[in-house]
Amino acid sequence: MDDERIIDLYWQRKEAAITETKAKYGRRCYAIAYNILHDRSDAEECENDTYLDAWESMPPHKPTALSAFLGAITRRISLDKWRRKTAQKRGGEFAVSLEELEACIPDGKGIDEQLSTESLAETISAFLYTLPETECDVFLRRYWHFDSIRSICARYGFGQSKVKMMLLRTREKLQTHLEKEGFFV
Fold first, then answer.
1. Residue 143's closest CA among 180, 100, 79?
2. Distance CA 145, CA 68 (A)
3. CA 33 to CA 73: how far, in whole Å?
4. End of a domain among 29, 58, 85?
């Protein structure tokens, strides 16, 4: 079923919306949650919470891109669960990918406190559009979907050193871009 029809089912308050969403996007939502949490039952719970959140969000929201809308919900729910579960300890692929990004994302001190999160997100999004497609895809696989280096290598047929170098150079470009946009003092 196409996305527009699924969204219409939500707006009509028909339970088939959830069934169709699960059939079309269940694996994707589960994968995002699992890449963050590394726990099957937690990932399944986040996937199901995504459907509930989508149900509660539509209406009034009418997403233009259902896959991105669901991905963002799953990501938010999974990150919240991860923060609760690991308040005392940090680890796993998700923590490693966050550490990789720390150097090129502002920390919210000084003038950066005046800049909104939305502005930062828009700037990063604009930066991603400047990248070659494969470089952008690898970057998003690592830092949006939280895929491991190994799974990125398997997906694109690259060696680990190539993926690591591509990510390093992209992070450096992002940092330079953010500096030019005034996100660092």
1. 100
2. 12
3. 10
4. 85
